[in-house]
Design brief:
The complex is a heterodimer of chains A (about 290) and B (about 240).
Chain A: H1 2-32, H2 39-55, H3 61-84, H4 92-114, E1 119-120, E2 129-132, E3 137-140, H5 141-163, H6 165-175, H7 177-182, H8 187-212, E4 215-216, H9 222-235, H10 240-261, H11 266-280
Antiparallel strand pairs in A: 1-4, 2-3
Helix pairs in contact in A: 1-5, 1-8, 1-9, 1-10, 2-3, 2-4, 2-8, 2-9, 3-8, 5-6, 5-8, 6-8, 9-10, 9-11, 10-11
Chain B: E1 11-20, E2 23-33, E3 38-43, H1 49-57, E4 64-69, E5 72-73, H2 79-85, E6 87-90, H3 102-109, H4 118-128, H5 130-134, H6 145-157, E7 163-167, H7 175-190, E8 194-199, H8 202-208, E9 211-216, E10 219-225, H9 226-231, H10 233-240
Parallel strand pairs in B: 3-8, 3-9, 6-7, 7-8
Antiparallel strand pairs in B: 1-2, 1-4, 4-5, 9-10
Helix pairs in contact in B: 3-6
Classes of the chains: A mainly alpha (about 290), B alpha/beta (about 240).
Amino acid sequence: MVYFLSNLVNGITLGSVYAMIALGYSMVYGIAKMLNFAHGDVIMVGAYVCFCAVQYWNLPPAAAVLVSMIVSTLLGVLIEGLAYRPLRQATSLAVLITAIGVSYLLQNLALLIWGATPVIFSSVVPDFKVRLLGGDLIITSAAIFTVLAAVAVMIALTLFVSRSRTGKAMRAVSEDRGAAELMGISVNRTISVTFAIGSALAAVAGVLLCSTYPTLTPTTGSLPGIKAFTAAVFGGIGSIPGAMLGGLLLGLIEIFGRSYISSELGDAIVFAVLIIVLLVRPTGLLGKPIREKV
Amino acid sequence: MSEGKEARPMLEVNDIHVFYGAIHAIKGISLKVDPGEIVTLIGANGAGKSTTLNTIAGLLRPRSGSVLFEGESLAHVPASKTVFRGMALCPEGRRIFQQMNVRDNLIMGGFSRPNAELEGSLENVYRYFPRLKERERQIAGTLSGGEQQMLAMARALMSKPKLMMLDEPSMGLAPILVEQIFDIIRELHAAGTTILLVEQNAQMALSIADRAYVLETGTISMSGEAKALLADDSVRKAYLGN
Ligand SMILES: Nc1ncnc2c1ncn2[C@@H]1O[C@H](COP(=O)(O)OP(=O)(O)OP(=O)(O)O)[C@@H](O)[C@H]1O
Ligand SMILES: [Mg+2]
């Protein structure tokens, strides 16, 4: 029972991180109609920036997270403006290859700046543990903060997209770019805002991920990035609730798969589940079936 | 028509050529719309009517030729900025935001206007389209065809355009709804909006318009007073079916 519950806690924690990353993938896909494969590497940059802010600039953790979010946001907007914007009319294959290129560029720049030796990330959350069930079930502060952050992000984002003018403009662009332009909505600006939001979330995800799994290298972002992409597809790419649900389920499947089936096959199980879901529901769990236009 | 300052057309299209890749869709079209007019553009399927309107709105760029709105060239104005100049396009196929509710569609229509105007503009369009007020919270994709067309027009109206361009507003609608749509176009015109109307329903379009242009495979084959075209034998044969 305790074993099950502690796996549940770990699964929800990891799933929360995936959900925050998946949101960035999904929003960018929904609005810019592209897969930003460099998104995972923004996580890594965010984590390194936070690491430096704490280690070298002696900033308090909250300020370090903020700096990390700001740098990642700027990086995301910069990537979009320099690498993707000139390709707005290009084929999706050209954009995809560019995104892979940007991903390697970020990894190699990180290698140049921070080196290949892993650094040990010092957690940004206050260190305490909650003991439940007579002390058998231990919940770390990192887990608590991760889940709280994910919930806060989801509520804020849902309200933003459904209520604010900019959020509505994002939905309009995602549905019909040309019609949105006729309304006076700048597609470029809307896409920039989307990258900004996605990258800020990636920084938060990176910092929280490394607070639980503290080994940080230039490739730290790639596997979580790919899994979060999987989560986005799993939940229905383009859908915000889908990204949240997909992320959460993926985290649970991964942790339970490792604990109950095979620790070596954890990642394989994750992708197997994805394939099965896509066979049954090609649009993902919450993806809208593609409707014929009348 | 009076001479001097007021003689400046609201919209002037000078010898535009528009391509889709290698397809030469518009081969040198010139037209103008004066303030307060209803001008209609008629023509068969594929003649280039929508291409012309989309080029005026900035969604497509002419390879050569110019589009002037109130005397100013739109050559370097992106599509998302033309609405700020005072023109609105109600596009072919409606293109409402299907997954958003009626009210949010209208709010997007007013995107180019200050927030403070929003409530007043909503009230204004609901006067033309009371049906939409009843359905404010309904998801646009679930509206009937006629209601969707009304929403598309109302959405364009939210930007308070001086020039309203309508691309086949009667397409696919029952005759009674077509009548309603044309009544509303008349009302808009009476309220001071200049109208550029693209229609396949040439009979209706010519009966409402002041002037008309006939488009044939990317060029203007005929133009003049709408009444004169309505009486013209070749127009009757080709577009009015008698
Ligand atoms: N996206 C496109 N790509 C290639 N060719 C196009 C495209 N859109 C239109 N065309 C071609 O350009 C020409 C003009 O098309 P356009 O849509 O402007 O005609 P239309 O007069 O609006 O016709 P309809 O009455 O059917 O709406 C047609 O020959 C059409 O096949
Ligand atoms: Mg057309």
